[in-house]
Amino acid sequence: MKNILVVDDSALMRRVICDIINTDELFRANDVCRDGLEAYEKLKIANYDAVILDVNMPKMNGLELLEKLHEEKIKATVIMVSTLTTKDATTTIMAMERGAVDFVPKPMNIIEARGEEFKNHLLNVLRAVLSCNQEKRNIRASEKYASPSINHHVAPKNIPGNKLVALACSTGGPKALQSVIPYLPANMKAPVVLVQHMPKGFTKTMAQRLNEISEVIVKEAEDGDTLRSGIVYIAPGGRHMLVRKTPTGHKIVLSDEAAIGGLKPCANLTYQSLKDCDYNQIICVVLTGMGADGTKGILELGKHRPIHTIAQNEETCVVYGMPKSIVDSKVADEIVPLNEIAQAIIKNVGVK
Questions:
Q1: 10 is catalytic
Q2: Which of 40, 224, 309, 327 is least buried, going by the fewest C-beta atoms within 10 A?
C-alpha cells in the first residue's frame, strides 16, 4: 500500500482529498499538513510515496516547500493541486520546473470536489506516477543481473527539403520540455508544433516561461498562425491544434470539437492533420505521459508522409505510457534519454 501525504490549508479539502485517495485499496492517506512548513518538518523525518500539495498556503507555500526540499536534497514525488487562475498557473509551472511531477486542477467548490471528474483525475495521476516509479525501482534492482541496455540510435534518413517537428507529451511534460526546448537553436531548419495535455491558461504560461529561457521563439498557438522555422507553437489548453496547407504556407487551425478520450488538445488529431501537408518529412517526438495519445496519429501519418519518430526512453520518463505505446507499435526510429532528445531533433532537421 502506498502512503500519501496531503498538504492543504483547507480542512475540508484535506478531508475530501484523503477520502478520495482512501477509496483506492492501493493507497493510504492518513497524514495531513496545513501548510508547507508542517510538511517540511514531516518530510525531514518520514518517507511518503507521494505528496499531494496545494499551491497557496500560509507560512510556506507549495513553491517555497519545493525549493526547500531541493536545497536540502529531500526526495519527494509531488503532485500539485492548483486552481485555474493566471497567478496559480504561473506558480504551478514554476513548481513543475522545481520538481513537481504533475498537477491536478483544484475544484472551484465542494460539489466539484466530491465529483467523479476530480476523483478520477487525481487517482489516475497517482496510479500512473507511482506505477512508473515502481517499474523504475524494479529496473534498477535487476540491472546487476541483466546485460547492459542499449539505446536505439539510428542515423537520420537524410531526406532533403522542408521538415516539421511534431512533439507530444503529458504527465511530466512541463519539466521534460525544459530539457528539450531551450537546447534547440534559433536557426534550426524547422518549425515545431507541440501538444502538452494541460487545461486552458496553463499552456500560455508554460509557453511564456519556455520562451524566456530558449533561443527559439515559443508561443501559444493562435488560429491562423503561419508556421515558420525556429518557432515552437504550443496547442492551447482546451482546443485541438491542426495544421493545414494553404496557398500562403502551412497554417495553424484551432478546433473546438469535442475532447478525444478526455483529451483536448489531442496529439492524435494534430498528427493526423499533417498527412496532407507539403513537408518532405515529419519528425515525430513523443515524451513522457500517461496513456497512448500520439500513437494512432503517427501510425496514420506514416501511411501518407515520410516520418522519423523519436521516443523518450523509459528510464528518464516520469510516466512511461505514451513513449511505450510508440515503442510497442514498432514505429520508434530512435529511443533516447531525455537529455539527448534535443540533439536527436537537430540531427534530423539541421540548422540554417
A1: no
A2: 224
